[in-house]
Design brief:
Length: about 140
């Protein structure tokens, strides 16, 4: 294997760097045309470059971040989109059900406390065998 040094190596490095840059730019453009949410890993893989190298290209990272922001906005088709009024009704129904469940939990907690108190009262009664061992042998 011939190892090149000096000016010809620098030219090759510069050319490789330009090619990597062009591949990364093309990958970002392809991501912009895609309906998928772009990632740095995906762009780096598509361009055949490393993630650390891609992170050094601040303008490409900025472009990827902008595409991610754009892609993260929910796309609701009019046919499947819930109306604001429908969502409001669902919220109100859920809040009412939540209130009912809180009331039910509070009621059951009071009943449980009463039952525990009754068990404690029965344990201290003379001759009581609730929860204890029998005294007759």
């Amino acid at each position: 294997m011939i190892r090149r040094t000096g000016p010809s190596r620098s030219v090759e490095d510069a050319q490789a760097g330009r090619q990597a840059r062009e591949r990364a730019e093309e990958a970002v453009k392809a991501a912009a045309r895609s309906s998928e949410r772009p990632t740095v890993v995906g762009i780096a893989n598509a361009a055949g470059v490393s993630r650390p190298w891609l992170y050094t290209q601040t303008d490409l990272i900025t472009a990827i971040n902008q595409l991610q922001t754009r892609a993260s906005a929910p796309h609701r088709s009019p046919r499947h989109a819930a109306s604001d009024a429908s969502l409001q009704r669902r919220l109100e129904t859920s809040l009412e059900r939540n209130r009912q469940l809180r009331d039910q939990v509070a009621d059951l907690t009071r009943k449980l406390e009463t039952a525990h108190g009754e068990i404690s009262r029965l344990r201290v009664l003379p001759g009581s065998q609730v929860g204890g061992a029998s005294s007759s042998r």
